[in-house]
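in:
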């Protein structure tokens, strides 16, 4: 494939206005999922659960594939699989190293089950492919309504437990000493994470759900350490990736997931460069300050931050 053929496959904007009307539900779904993904992703990063998201996504894929095989609702199957995986991880309560090993065992099991169910499915191959890589054109009004209801539920619960969950996520040992139900909050968040993963799989697919729940929050944390600003930037980046990815995918012949992941990665890359520049500038300023302090001669007058002067003189013999 030459360069012109590649561009014609990625960017095809013929009759774009007419197609835009057909994916109105998908745009709303993408906007809702961007909001949920940005907020939930912030807690995922604070609790170091990036690897767990992938494990939940694989079980969500298995549940959706099973529902597709038996003719049930795909969203319901995806939701059952992801919540089941989240509950197993939440109740297990393993330490970081054991938890990563457990997720590593769970991931191939869920992926294997999903592939088994899809191999037994005799329907359209596009339905199989969309579970892995996402889709934008088949979000019905009923599916959109269910996504909105579940998203509102997730956000409402997060708002209700925002302060204790933030405390338990940043310093679980102190939170436990203060009497907070750290284990209960962990299980509750895992359930909310499972619901968010199940919703995200419907748009971006099981394989690339990290681009919605991890990358925007990681990019936001590169730019600020303030929890409030991190959430705002994470939501903004997730919305740009989701809505922008849908709009670009509408004008191409490939699934939505490459567009979403490319936008997410570009945002993270820019944020990482900004962070590196800031760290280099701060390091340079500290070096200059240290050099100026060590080279100030004894007896010289130095001005402090308030403009006052202090003198260091050699005492008289």
């Amino acid at each position: 494939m030459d360069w012109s053929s590649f561009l014609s496959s990625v960017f095809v904007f013929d009759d774009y206005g007419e197609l835009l009307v057909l994916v109105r539900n998908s745009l709303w779904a993408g906007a809702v999922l961007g909001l949920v993904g940005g907020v939930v992703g912030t807690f995922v990063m604070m609790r170091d659960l990036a690897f767990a998201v992938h494990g939940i996504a694989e079980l969500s894929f298995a549940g959706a594939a099973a529902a597709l095989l038996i003719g049930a609702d795909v969203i319901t199957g995806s939701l059952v699989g992801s919540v089941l995986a989240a509950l197993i991880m939440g109740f297990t309560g393993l330490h970081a190293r054991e938890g990563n090993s457990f997720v590593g065992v769970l991931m191939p099991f869920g992926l294997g089950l999903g592939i088994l169910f899809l191999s037994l499915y005799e329907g359209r191959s596009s339905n199989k492919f969309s579970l892995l890589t996402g889709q934008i054109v088949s979000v019905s009004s009923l599916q959109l309504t269910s996504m909105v209801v579940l998203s509102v539920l997730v956000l409402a619960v997060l708002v209700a437990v925002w302060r204790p969950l933030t405390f338990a996520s940043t310093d679980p040992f102190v939170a436990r000493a203060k009497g907070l139900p750290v284990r209960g909050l962990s299980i509750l968040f895992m359930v909310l994470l499972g619901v968010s993963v199940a919703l995200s799989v419907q748009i971006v697919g099981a394989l690339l759900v990290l681009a919605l729940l991890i990358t925007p929050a990681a990019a936001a944390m590169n730019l600020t350490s303030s929890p409030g600003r991190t959430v705002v930037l994470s939501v903004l980046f997730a919305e740009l990736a989701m809505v922008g990815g849908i709009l670009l995918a509408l004008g191409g012949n490939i699934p939505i997931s490459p567009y979403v992941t490319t936008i997410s990665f570009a945002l993270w890359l820019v944020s990482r460069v900004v962070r590196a520049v800031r760290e280099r500038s701060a390091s340079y300023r500290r070096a200059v300050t240290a050099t100026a302090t060590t080279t100030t001669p004894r007896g010289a007058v130095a001005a402090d931050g308030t403009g006052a002067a202090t003198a260091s003189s050699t005492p008289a013999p």
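note: Residues 301-317 have pLDDT under 50 and may be disordered.
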